[in-house]
Amino acid sequence: MRGKSVLARRSALPVLGLFALPVGWAFLLLIVPYGIMVAISFWTRQFPLFVPDFQFGNYLQLFSDPQYYTVILRTAKIAALVTLAATCLGYPLAYYLVFVIKTERLRALLYMLVIVPLWVSYLLRTYTWKTILGTDGALNSALKWLGVIDQPISLFLYNQWSMVITLTYIFIPFVVMPVFAALENIPRNLIEASEDLGVRPFGTFLRVILPLSAGGVISGATVTFCLAFGDFVAPVLVGGPDGTMVANLLQSQFGAALNWPLGSALATVVLLIVMALLWLSARLDRAGRVALG
Amino acid sequence: MKAGKRLAPFALGLVAMAHAAAAQDLNILTWEGYAPETITRPFAEASGCNITASYVGSNDDFAAKLAAGGGVYDIITPSSDTVPLLSQAGFVDPIDPAAVENYAGIYPEFSQSPALNLDGITWAVPLIWGSVSLIYRPDMVPGTPDSIAVLFDPAYAGKISMWDDKSAIYWAARYLGYENIFDLTDEQLEAVKAKLIEQKPLVRKYWASAGELTELMANQEVYVSNAWTGLTFKEVNGLNKGFTVAEFNPKEKSEGWMDSMMLVKGTPNQECAMKFISYMQSAEGQCALAASTGYFPVNPGAVAACMDEATKKERQVGNIDFVKSLVMWQQPARLDKYIEVWNAVKAAP
């Protein structure tokens, strides 16, 4: 016991030196700004700027004026749809890569192809969807050429669907990566054992593979939901007049409206929503964890 | 000393940076198209000041960027409806008109306007002006439209666009027949809001920048919109897409705007900034900016020699009566309320 404490004391300084930078960084650039944000959320807007104060008017406004909760609910709906679509497309893709592709090289190549769009600017990828979905875009041109339609369809772009399509495309890699890792880590002998015991392939999937990859699904879905929830580019580029999301509202409060107090209150609410979600996701992950061994 | 040694390279770097700054930089926060090479290069040769330009998408960006710590910019160029806010917020320094060359040549209607001169102090020097009118596709809109009604006509459902800005309120208010569009009552604002929400299903997209409107028009996404007079018209027709666009002034009037130069508070590059403000009142400055944007010069004397007669007519040179045919932008009496209403329109389902 005594020896241990000496060891701990001796290593305290180097340990401190080792972690001072990351801990200091987290404190200075994450925790302090959150504190400032929460503090400003109690300030008061006073034309043309705002003054320090302590009052709950900003929060009251958020929950009483329909323009704010309408947008928060809309954002949650779009993020949920994106998460659902990205998971439904990303899981089979990861499954295909891990279990169906037989050669290691082809698997690595296809995996890279899924991941490689992340190297391209997010803005550019979103913008590309405009040229695909537009009235004069690639999709309408192709349908016209095939003779399916004779007038371009305007429903593809500038609405909530185009936002869901674009965001799903962008976030699929964030589902594929953790699911791929989870599937790869499943010991093959478990699957063989299941098959040896006469369980049909679908049964093996439901009772062995799916539970063992649930952690990957949860982390992929959580990341996708949080990223989609905070997106502000898709509404501007491919969203229509009904596409305002919560991040656009935030941008407007810190920009046009010059109402940092209200913006901070909104940001605090968004932070709480995301934190609640992370907590839920961590609990789900723990509850669903299957003991191997 | 040890610490000093370790810091030496760092300090050297700082000195190098300071030296680069001494080579006379001028940072301008302005609109796209306002700092073309036809201005920056001759200005650098004449003054020794190198211009770095950053761009805004709307008048609301000026105060937002300065509020977030504005040490980066020396000159900003907001429209006259935003000038009072910036001086009220204390983001700018006053300007001595006597130090601006050619100041007397500016239309007095602009240089002496109350928005630019608060309490006998000059806060801004006019730069360029223009109007916001309506743009449409003559091949898609039958007859000759003469009213803002075209922006609210279900016949063009899904083919209408509007600037994503509080000025949407001004257009809807005029359409509803209100005269006091910068000082609407609560009831009037409610009616305007209802009208704009009613219009939403007809709107394809609210445009955020002139470039976006050009794209929307060129890609046949929309047939009618409000637009910077001259600019979108010139750009879309210049693309030779197999169709053309036309502009018109509705009977409810078009809008007029005037951009002015303001000096950011405590700018270290005041000398360059003042040189720039003077340069923009010269023949070179006014003609280059008018040519690059398609907008109208504020200094008729300056452009006398550098603009041909046809262009002068097109750019309303000397025709101050044209201003009276427009609704010139003013800062709304209740700016917060207007922005809240516009945000509520955009948030509505």
TrEMBL record, chain A:
Residue intervals of the ABC transmembrane type-1 domain: 72-281
Transmembrane domains' residue ranges: 12-43, 78-101, 108-124, 161-183, 204-237, 257-280
Family under the similarity heading: Belongs to the binding-protein-dependent transport system permease family. CysTW subfamily.
Main subcellular localisation: membrane
Compartments where found: Cell membrane
Family annotation (Pfam families): BPD_transp_1
Record lineage: Bacteria, Pseudomonadati, Pseudomonadota, Alphaproteobacteria, Rhodobacterales
Any single biological process term in GO: transmembrane transport
Sorted UniProt keywords: Cell membrane, Membrane, Transmembrane, Transmembrane helix, Transport
Entries under PROSITE patterns matching the protein: ABC_TM1
Protein topology in the membrane: Multi-pass membrane protein
Organism domain of life: Bacteria
Cellular component GO terms, alphabetical: plasma membrane
Protein name: ABC transporter permease
InterPro entries on file: MetI-like, MetI-like_sf
